[in-house]
Amino acid sequence: MSSIADDIIKSLEQAVEIKKGNLEGNVTRYEIADVKAIREQLHVTQKELAMAIDVSVDTVKSWEQGRRNPTGLASKVLNLLSKEPELYSKFSD
Q: Where in this chain does the entry annotate a coiled-coil region (predicted)?
C-alpha cells in the first residue's frame, strides 16, 4: 500500500514544483486507463467501481464511453488496479 502513498506524495510534490515553475519535462505520466476492461477484470459493476474509487456512476460511464478520461488520483488508482487487481479489496472496504 505504500506505493500508492508514494505515488500520491510524488504527484503532490510535482504539482507544487509545476506551480512554482520549477518542473517542466520530468512529470510522471500515466496511460489512459481502459476503465471498462479494468472493471471487467475486477468483476464489478459500474456502481461498485464508482463507490470504491469515490466517483459518480456517471463519471465511470463517461470514462467507459470515451467522453472523458480519468485524471489525477483516479487515473493513478485505475492504472494501479489494472496491474494489481488484488488491491481492489483495499479500495472497496
A: none
Q: Domain limits of the chain?
A: 32-93
* CATH superfamily to which 32-93 belongs: lambda repressor-like DNA-binding domains (1.10.260.40)
CA angle 79/10/82 to nearest 5° reads 10
pLDDT, tens only, 3-29: 777 777 777 787 777 667 666 655 555
Write out pLDDT tens, residues 69-82: 898 888 888 988 99
The 3-state DSSP class for residue 28 equals coil
